[in-house]
Every structure is written in C-alpha cells, then in structure tokens.
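Usage

Read records sequentially. Each one opens with the input sequence:
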Amino acid sequence: MKVDSPMITKFTLVSASILGAAGLAFAGTANTFTVIDENADAQITLGEFQKAYPSLDPEIFAQLDRDQDNILSPSEFIGSNLPEVEPSEG
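and closes with the structure output:
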C-alpha cells in the first residue's frame, strides 16, 4: 500500500504546531511559577498565589492543590490555565 506523502507532511506539520503550542504554554506556566514563588523555595503558598492573582477566589488554589498540603508544587501549578504573571520591576 502506497502512503500519500503530502498527507504525511500535512499531518507532521499539524502535529508539530500542536506540540509547539503546548510547549509554549508549559514554558509560560513554568516561568510564571518562578515569578510567583517569591522566596524561591519551589512552592507557592496561598499568600504568594493571592498576591499574584488578587481577583481569583482562593478556591482555585484549593482545586490546584491536589494533595491538599496547602502549597502548590511545580507539578500542581505548571500546565494550569492560569494567566501568566510578569516579574515586577524593582
């Protein structure tokens, strides 16, 4: 059976685009985690979370905190659909 080469190329391009977008989203939340984690202890506390997202309900923090230890680890935060946070100047 002959495989249609243009179809493979189209599939490859679409797959690369999807994976590239996912990688950018992952990189964005990884960078945001670093920005929010003010004391660089690899954990986001509720206080750090609320400072970064003052308009969000604390229940969102609780939903992300899958192991209910009152901190967000990188694995709990990275990949979430929260908006990126830019580093503050000064």
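Summary fields computed downstream for this record:
- The CA atoms of residues 14 and 20 lie 10 Å apart.
- The first helix runs from residue 5 to 36.
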